[in-house]
Specification:
Elements (H helix, E strand, L loop, with lengths): L1 H9 L8 H9 L9 H7 L7 H15 L4 H14 L5
Helix pairs in contact: 1-4, 4-5
């Protein structure tokens, strides 16, 4: 989330103060077994997921604005290898 926040700042997108902490706190309020739509797609072995939309976009924008995105890159790579090993 810090990587996304940094990209938002570079794009002059105003976000509320403390948005990262507020978002993480909100996430802890969901039941433990709640899945995101990306997780559901992966578990249902859908060929098309939101991985490129979210992960790929964060990585691309990070490169464009000179912002390091190691966490997103790691998650993206691991998910891509698991979902589409033929493209690894």
């Amino acid at each position: 989330m810090n990587e996304i926040y940094s990209i938002a700042l570079k794009k002059a997108i105003r976000l509320p103060d403390g948005i990262v902490d507020l978002s993480l706190k909100k996430a802890t309020m969901f039941p433990r077994d709640t899945q995101t739509s990306l997780q559901r797609d992966i578990h249902q072995k859908k060929g098309k997921t939101e991985l490129e939309l979210f992960g790929g976009t964060i990585i691309d924008l990070g490169e464009k604005f000179g912002i390091s995105t190691p966490t997103t890159q790691k998650i993206y790579r691991e998910l891509k290898e698991g979902l589409f090993p033929q493209f690894s």
